[in-house]
Amino acid sequence: MIGPVVDVGSVPEWLKPLMLVSEDLDARAFTRFSAPRGARTRPAAVLVLFGEGERGPDVLLTRRADTLGSHPGQVAFPGGGADDGDDGPIGTALREAEEETGVDPSGVRPLAVLPELYVPVSGFAVTPVLAHWETPSPVHAVDPGETAAVARVTIADLVDPANRYQVQRHGHGWKGPVFEVGGLFVWGFTAGLLSVLLALGGWEREWDHSDVRDLDVALAAHTNRERA
């Protein structure tokens, strides 16, 4: 099932615009990639968990451990590959979020299942699950061998034009958004999904799309700033 799984009227006002468009979305709203015909993909799900703290609405993000064999050090939504015992994408997203961040699933209300998105670099077919953190619980990096950090990042900081630009990798023909916020360097799949959701939710502010930097240079500069 794709689209809302609860009544839109029961959702907080600041989340309603995003909920109202979730039913009509398809994968093309988020990515230009699709799985090649006959390709074997691996089902996965991520939890896009919106809460509300002292500084307003926020979203839960993790930073993967630097020692991991795939996507080391990258910022991501809690999530991962589906297990046989999961109850669909919602079950996968909630299980993975609890395993990675310690979030209490009983305080999380799934709102909508978004279209499945193909990630070429990993072969995953990822289903984002939009959710509201009705009763926030303490979160932390449960297994430091997999997760280096867990953070609630405010929407206000994400949409601040000073925290946004684009990156590219020469010779790859790829360009995508970046968020530098709260000590995190958010790019790739996560930044692309976030960027679309912020726009669909009506939160986006005008920012400089013409500011395009080399990914490796930008990431090195960010790392040096964080170490200083």
Automatic annotation (TrEMBL):
CDD domains on file: NUDIX_CoAse_Nudt7 (cd03426)
Domain of life: Bacteria
Necessary cofactors: Mg(2+); Mn(2+)
Domain Nudix hydrolase residues, every copy: 40-181
Record keyword Manganese present: yes
SUPFAM superfamilies: Nudix
Signal sequence, start to end: none
Keywords per UniProt: Hydrolase, Magnesium, Manganese, Membrane, Metal-binding, Transmembrane, Transmembrane helix
Spans through the membrane: 184-203
Listed name of the protein: CoA pyrophosphatase
Organism: Amycolatopsis minnesotensis
Organism ancestry: Bacteria, Bacillati, Actinomycetota, Actinomycetes, Pseudonocardiales
